Structure formats: C-alpha cells, structure tokens
C-alpha cells in the first residue's frame, strides 16, 4: 500500500460509522467515508468539528457560526484554497500527496517536462508540477474547478507563461476524450500523463463518461501522446470498484513498449493517534526510470 506522507497541515483524526474526522489547517471537518465501516476510537474528538456534512439526503454542510467559508492551507509545500462543496469535497485529495512525491522523485534534476493532467479537478497536482518547473496542460470539464485552479496559481505567485523558464500552465475546460483526440490530431507529445478518472461524469457538451466503457479507449489514445522516451503515467481512481491489479494491467502495454516498471496499490492515510489505515483509492504508477 502507498501510505500518505505526514504533513503538519492535514490530519486524519479519527474515522468510523461511515464517516471520517479530518483537519485541514486549523479547520476540522466530518465527511462521509464508505470505507470506514468500523467504530470511531475517540468519540469526544468529533464534537470539535467546525463543519459536518449532512448525509441524510440534504447534501449540505452544517458549520459552526465562526467557521470560515474558505481558507488557505499549505500542503506538500504549496498553498491551496480549501472550500467545502456540496459534493462533500474540499478542493484537495490529501491521499494524492504520495503521488506528488513519487512524481518529484522520478523527475528530480529535470525541468520543463511536458505534463498532461487529465480530470485535473482544482489542480493541486498541476500547481505542484508547475512549482517544480514543468510545463503543464491541465484538463477538466468544469469551469468552476478550473477557476479554482487559477486562484491557486495566483496564491502561489507562479508564472504560468514560462517567462522565467521555470514552467508553464495551460488550463483547458473541455471533455477529456474530445480534447485528447484533438491533441492527437495536432501531433502533441508529453513526457508524463496524469489521470484520475471518475466512475461516472459529464463533459462540457454533456458527453457521458462511464469508466468501464471509456477508460480502455482513453488509455489507448494517451499512448499516442507520449514522447519517444516518456517519463511515465500515474493512473489513480476512487469509487470505481476496481482493484490495483486491474489498474496495473491496463498500463502493461506501456511497459512492454518502453520498458520500465509498474507499481500498483491502494492509497491510504494513517490516523493521527492510531495505527489504523483508511483506504482512499487505488493507483497504478508506470515509470521508465
């Protein structure tokens, strides 16, 4: 399993009864978590939450009077806007930190690599890769989350146009499948491709995405976008029902073509005051190094 590295600005305080208790910076949240089928260890902690997600059909947050509407926290060395949304998300998936650090390790000593981030959400990975000096193309079908990414870039005072020779960022609001096909026609190539596809979703033109139907074709297509000597691919997922071995198998053609290795496992976060691990998705990492 890939265990999320410790970061002082995030903590999984406790979990259980289908919920998890987390701290983002100084703000404590209670959110639904289907994996947490056990009992909480310290029920007293839960009374300190600033936000509680109401999962009884109302899909909204109950917050303390003085709790902020949004706030800034530094995670993995970058500043990010945290904001509870109606879909229980916050703008950050903390378990992805292990993928960021894997990418940093594999690209050590390199600058201005071309990175394609598909289903990029609010762009924490895009900001992270840009902060390392790479040229990132970020794609998501939601204008709202792309605006959020733009604010995260401003927050970190990052040059998105490579004026200083230390990376660039293109933010694309489009259906991933449509845009990937457009990139193929243009003959564009990338050193790294990052993707975190949902189980189900819609594109900008109401294109329907179903992972069991569409992921195999997308994987075939991104193969046409890799350079002759690529760095790798990071494929992660949540709530799709697949095993790490399935995600490993779908990347095997790249290993056969380019060599290198594939490591696939669950992504977990350790509770702050116990040895319990909470599984928050799966990831398959292909690297030629």
TrEMBL record:
Residues 53-226 form the S-adenosylmethionine-dependent methyltransferase domain. GO terms for biological process: methylation. Gene3D superfamilies: Golgi alpha-mannosidase II (2.60.40.1180), Vaccinia Virus protein VP39 (3.40.50.150). Keywords: Methyltransferase, S-adenosyl-L-methionine, Transferase. It holds the Pfam family Methyltrans_SAM. Signal peptide: none annotated. InterPro entries: Glyco_hydro_b, SAM-dep_methyl-trfase, SAM-dependent_MTases_sf. GO terms for molecular function: methyltransferase activity. PANTHER family: SAM-DEPENDENT METHYLTRANSFERASE (PTHR43042). This is S-adenosylmethionine-dependent methyltransferase domain-containing protein. It comes from Candidatus Nomurabacteria bacterium RIFCSPLOWO2_01_FULL_33_17.
